[in-house]
Design brief:
two-stranded antiparallel ribbon, Rossmann fold, alpha/beta, 2 domains
Length: about 500
């Protein structure tokens, strides 16, 4: 029988209230459960609740909703890794990886990730809870997390909503969490998906330099690197091109010579073309010769299934959004998904330069939203009338002074134990797998950390774990990475 412990602490101060008075400031609900992982039963507890964000003067600025899973049959928690998990957006709840990837529960969906009814959850036999404890954190305005403001004041958006502000307050929050739960001796990891990739790059530096919390690993799942993403630079267009090849291969739109090959036999070819031919061509701009322009356009057609004329009219710079509309325009007339191009959509018109909507995202919201609301209230026993924000209001987001790449490099330089794992889906058209590889090279421009940087690719999209085969594979890759980076390999020195 599940044991429920409800602890209510922290009375509201006279001079502060939350935006929604139904949100408790500091509350814990604990439940007990078990899950069978890799054929072995794992007993665990789930600690669900709200923990405040304090400023330097101890004033409560916000309260964050979190769920912390920990095994109960562990005698020595000092050696037990702790995974601190974030999603992205910015403005996204931690729901995605929580109930579909690493946690002890996963969605009831089909083997390719499509929603099925009745909605709900089931045990996750591939969860990493067998090798590590996990806390899923929801930043301000996501899930039930909310800012705290005085009656006459507005929300201090600059305190929360920006690359640097986000990492700073979350690092403060993690310090309190690790202290409260006595996890300072544990090997520690941060994992972030999508914008969470930028978040954990910045957070690694913030934790080490301002909280003196040193990490064993940083894990980036389909990372969004805003020093490349949507910059419309030559690098942006060229680096994303191999994704065109992957999506075209999946939809059988490549020439027969390529289509008959396996995807992983083709991608190295198109990656070399993108770096060695397309990027130099784009860098030349209007000074490129007509011969070179035509030769490059022909190769782009060969590797993408898109007509040569389209590339020429775009000056070789075809945005991903146009590709999602164009690839199947003359065959089925359907669009392909932004975050996962295996998904298909139907627009009002077949004409146009970008899809009307993202079919994969609405599909995911279709299955995730009822599942998380059911799970939190009925299994985790956290009762509230507050709306669970799958996406919350965090705009405008301050992208200025973005030094996330360089700050992760500094963190790696300062900490010889720190290793990096990047996981990407080949059919992700928003944060492409080739862009993730590019980011890894920019994090380590000297090449001296190559033995501490690891990349894993999957035959799916942004949330590769929604595909049953990749759920198992990606969790096993995490399991291996955690084991290899948490073992005692001697003193932390060069």
């Amino acid at each position: 029988m599940k044991k429920i412990i409800l602890l209510v602490a922290f009375l509201y101060s006279i001079n502060i209230i939350s935006q929604d008075k139904r949100v408790p400031l500091d509350t814990i609900v604990t439940t007990s459960n078990s899950v069978t992982i890799k054929g072995k039963k794992v007993q665990y507890k789930a600690q669900t609740g709200m923990q405040p964000v304090f400023d330097a003067n101890g004033v409560t600025k916000a309260t964050l909703f979190y769920t912390y899973y920990y095994r109960t049959d562990i005698t020595n928690r000092e050696k037990r890794p702790l995974i601190m998990s974030f999603n992205g957006g910015p403005g996204s709840a931690s729901v995605w990886m929580h109930i579909a990837y690493t946690g002890p529960k996963t969605l009831k969906i089909d083997e390719e990730g499509n929603p099925i009814q009745p909605y709900g959850i089931k045990d996750n036999p591939h969860s990493i809870l067998d090798v590590a404890d996990i806390v899923f954190i929801n930043p301000v305005n996501t899930a039930y997390s909310r800012p705290i403001v005085a009656p006459e004041k507005k929300v201090d958006t600059k305190y929360f909503f920006g690359i640097n502000a986000d990492a700073k307050y979350l690092a403060d929050w993690l310090n309190v969490f690790v202290t409260r739960n006595n996890r300072w001796s544990s090997p520690k990891y941060i994992i972030g998906e999508s914008y969470g990739g930028t978040r954990v790059m910045q957070l690694a530096h913030e934790l080490q330099n301002n909280q003196w919390m040193y990490l064993n690993g940083v894990i980036m799942v389909s990372p969004a690197d805003y020093q490349l993403l949507r910059t419309k630079s030559s690098e942006d267009y060229a680096i994303n091109f191999p994704y065109f090849t992957a999506a075209a291969w999946y939809h059988k739109m490549l020439p027969q010579k390529l289509q008959q090959k396996d995807l992983l036999d083709i991608l190295p070819e198109t990656e070399q073309f993108a770096i060695n031919s397309l990027l130099p061509a784009l860098a030349k701009g209007g000074y490129i010769s007509e011969t070179e322009r035509n030769n490059v356009a022909e190769k782009m057609t060969y590797y993408s299934g898109i007509k040569k004329d389209v590339f020429l009219k775009h000056n070789l710079e075809v945005p991903n959004s146009y590709f999602w509309k164009e690839l199947l325009r003359d065959t089925s007339g359907k669009t392909i998904g932004r975050l996962d191009s295996r998904y298909l959509g139907i627009d009002r018109r077949e004409t146009g330069t970008k899809p009307d909507y993202s079919p994969e995202l609405v599909s995911w919201l279709h299955s995730f939203t009822p599942a998380i609301n059911y799970y939190v209230q009925n299994v985790l026993k956290f009762k509230t009338d507050v709306k669970y924000n799958m996406f919350g209001a965090v705009r405008p987001w301050d992208f200025s002074n973005n030094n996330a790449r360089e700050n992760l490099r500094k963190a790696m330089s300062q900490n010889p134990y720190l290793k990096i794992l990047v996981q990407s889906g080949y059919y992700d058209g928003a944060t492409t797998y080739a862009a993730a590889k590019y980011t890894m090279g920019k994090i380590d421009p000297s090449g001296k950390f190559k033995d501490r940087l690891f990349f894993k690719g999957y035959r799916s999209g942004h949330m590769m774990y929604l595909r049953k085969e990749d759920l198992e594979k990606s969790n096993e890759d995490l399991r291996i990475f955690i084991k290899n980076s948490s073992e005692n390999v001697g003193a932390a020195k060069y």
